[in-house]
């Protein structure tokens, strides 16, 4: 085990040339990021998950009730042991041949069996009330953490001059603000990662799992090798659009379509401009070029930048979906429906009146 740990924490991978872990030990004069600081993130993630449950129960539900959002879920399929076994053990989307076989076995017509499978699939989707409470929780967290990030960063020199992220690197002291910011963000994304396995499984599970893993890896990487300054810029930039997307979802669930459309338009503009404009020009420029000029590359530098580029590819994919879905909705004269694909399950509801709304289900 000692050999594995020594291999994993190899200084030549994590740190620039001629820098050792001993150089970054905490002293009375300065505090530096330590890997063990992040151990507390796991219990904090569990606490955040429990806070989420309490928030949704005692704040989200009363707010939803005030907006007349009902807890009623989709119509339930009538109990049938044979169809239930097919649904749970074989397929949730039977093909024509299987439908015909089930029709003969049950003496039901094919259309009735198709309706049963549609209703049964819908049973696994959370109610509008549950989705509203989840979005309200995320909106509250993103609003808080984004506000905190802006208030903290506006006093930081690296917000105004990104080269400050690399001057005197890696001997940049860890401040209380950066430590708190990192722990809270890491704990929140860990709680989202855990909740993917406890919540009802969504169609975007693989891509969101990849997103959460990439985000957590970036947070851990940037903290351990003290790239925390640029890390704070990345986190704050991403939280900005997340606030609007959750607000748009809540408006959609509350059937406030004018507000929903306005928030979606604001979100689309901010998301595309920040993820395809500001992120590569501001963030990738400093991590790839300014850091190369001031510090120079080393192994973990390459990994960190590969993760940032992976994030950029996800940004491009999501921006494509936003633009394509919005264009289809506008061309069909159904601008309000362009929010369906960001509302999670409603975008893939089999009863959705617009086929274009089913194309891009579960993007966010």
Automatic annotation (TrEMBL):
UniProt GO MF annotations: DNA binding; sphingosine N-acyltransferase activity
Domain TLC: 130-331
Pathway(s) served: Sphingolipid metabolism; Lipid metabolism; sphingolipid metabolism
DNA-binding region positions on the chain: 85-128
Domain Homeobox, first and last residues per copy: 83-127
UniProt subcellular location: Endoplasmic reticulum membrane; Nucleus
Cellular component GO terms, alphabetical: endoplasmic reticulum membrane; nucleus
UniProt keyword list: DNA-binding, Endoplasmic reticulum, Homeobox, Lipid biosynthesis, Lipid metabolism, Membrane, Nucleus, Transferase, Transmembrane, Transmembrane helix
A biological-process GO annotation: ceramide biosynthetic process
Protein name: Ceramide synthase 6
Organism of derivation: Gouania willdenowi (Blunt-snouted clingfish)
């Amino acid at each position: 085990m000692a050999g594995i740990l020594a291999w994993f924490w190899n200084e030549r991978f994590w740190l620039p040339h001629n820098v050792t872990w001993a150089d970054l030990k905490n002293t009375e004069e300065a505090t530096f990021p330590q890997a063990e600081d992040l151990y507390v993130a796991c219990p904090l993630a569990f606490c955040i998950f429990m806070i989420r449950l309490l928030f949704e129960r005692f704040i989200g539900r009363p707010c939803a009730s005030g907006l007349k959002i009902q807890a009623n879920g989709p119509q339930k399929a009538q109990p049938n042991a044979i169809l239930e076994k097919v649904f749970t053990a074989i397929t949730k989307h039977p093909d024509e041949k299987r439908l015909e076989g089930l029709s003969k076995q049950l003496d039901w017509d094919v259309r009735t069996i198709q309706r049963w499978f549609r209703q049964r699939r819908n049973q696994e989707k959370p109610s509008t009330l549950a989705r509203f409470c989840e979005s309200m929780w995320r909106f509250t967290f993103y609003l808080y953490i984004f506000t905190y990030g802006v208030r903290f960063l506006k006093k930081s020199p690296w917000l105004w001059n990104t080269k400050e992220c690399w001057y005197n690197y890696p001997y940049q002291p860890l401040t209380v603000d950066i430590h708190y910011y990192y722990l809270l963000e890491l704990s929140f994304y860990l709680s989202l990662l855990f909740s993917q396995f406890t919540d009802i499984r969504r169609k975007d599970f693989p891509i969101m799992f990849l997103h959460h893993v990439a985000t957590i890896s970036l947070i851990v990487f940037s903290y351990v090798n003290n790239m925390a300054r640029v890390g704070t810029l990345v986190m704050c930039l991403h939280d900005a659009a997340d606030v609007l997307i959750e607000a748009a979802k809540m408006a959609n669930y509350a059937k406030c379509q004018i507000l929903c459309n306005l928030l979606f338009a604001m979100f689309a503009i901010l998301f595309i401009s920040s993820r395809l404009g500001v992120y590569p020009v501001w963030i990738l420029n400093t991590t790839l070029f300014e850091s190369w000029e001031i510090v120079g590359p080393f192994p973990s530098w390459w990994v960190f930048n590969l993760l940032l580029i992976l994030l950029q590819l996800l940004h491009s994919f999501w921006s494509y979906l936003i633009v394509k879905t919005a264009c289809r909705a506008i061309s069909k004269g159904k601008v309000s429906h362009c929010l369906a694909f960001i509302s999670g399950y409603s975008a893939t509801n089999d009863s959705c009146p617009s086929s274009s709304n089913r194309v891009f289900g579960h993007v966010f």
